Each structure stands twice: as structure tokens, then as C-alpha cells.
């Protein structure tokens, strides 16, 4: 899919917004990124937050190290079919005996 482009208006309000954005951010987007990074560093608790995040990551990694053991499934014992076969043979023999009489 091709992304839909917004219609460009030559109105005064649109051009003023673009100019204001460019002047505040600098002529290049990289300058805008640099200014945003400086704002983060200026905050007094920023470094503390970073250290806390790193500590939390280390804690999570330690928890994941232990491997869970898989439970072994118990095998079901197969029922012997010999008994059923013997019963069937006895029934057949009885039926044959009854017919012969």
C-alpha cells in the first residue's frame, strides 16, 4: 500500500506552522534530537532513573536463569486383550455345542 499524502495548502496558517517548527527545532532534524537529549540530561533525577532501570533489568535477568523442570507423564498400562479373546472362544464353543445338540 502507498501511504496517502496530506493535501498541501498554501494558506498562511500552514506555512507559519512549518516555519515555526523549523526555527524552533533548528534547520536539521539531528539538531532537534540533540536539543531533546540536552533537556533530558538537565533534569536532576534523570541519572537516578537510569541507574534504577539498570538495576531492575539485572534483577529480572537473575530470575529468568532458573530452568523449569518438565513433569514426566505417567504411562497408562495397556489392558490385556487375551482374556477377552478367551471369553469369545468359550462362547463360540458353547454355541457350537448347543447347535450340535
Question: Any descriptors?
Answer:
single chain; 101 residues; mainly alpha; 4 helices; 65% helix; 0% strand; rod-shaped
Please, could you describe this protein's structure?
- The protein has 101 residues and is mainly alpha-helical.
- The chain has a domain at 29-62.
- Helix content is 65%, strand content 0%.
- The chain contains 4 helices and no strands.
- The longest helix is centred in the middle third of the chain and has 19 residues, at 46-64.
Short structural description:
This protein has helices at residues 12-25, 29-42, 46-64, 82-100. The protein is mainly α and 101 residues long. Residues 1-20 have a biased composition (Basic and acidic residues).
Distance between the termini: 88 Å
- Element-by-element helix/strand order: HHHH
Profile the largest sheet: none
Instruction: Report the helical percentage.
Output: 55-70%
The number of distinct helices, counting runs of at least 4 residues, comes to 4
Question: Overall 3D geometry?
Answer: rod-shaped
Strand content: under 5%
Topology overview:
Blueprint (H helix, E strand, L loop, with lengths): L11 H14 L3 H14 L3 H19 L17 H19 L1
Amino acid at each position: 500500500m502507498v501511504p496517502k499524502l496530506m493535501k498541501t495548502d498554501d494558506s498562511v496558517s500552514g506555512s507559519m506552522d512549518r516555519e515555526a517548527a523549523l526555527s524552533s527545532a533548528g534547520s536539521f532534524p539531528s539538531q532537534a534530537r540533540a536539543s531533546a537529549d540536552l533537556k533530558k540530561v538537565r533534569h536532576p533525577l534523570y541519572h537516578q532513573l537510569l541507574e534504577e532501570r539498570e538495576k531492575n533489568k539485572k534483577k529480572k535477568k537473575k530470575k529468568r536463569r532458573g530452568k523449569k523442570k518438565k513433569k514426566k507423564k505417567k504411562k497408562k498400562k495397556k489392558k490385556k486383550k487375551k482374556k477377552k479373546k478367551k471369553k469369545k472362544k468359550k462362547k463360540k464353543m458353547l454355541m457350537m455345542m448347543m447347535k450340535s445338540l
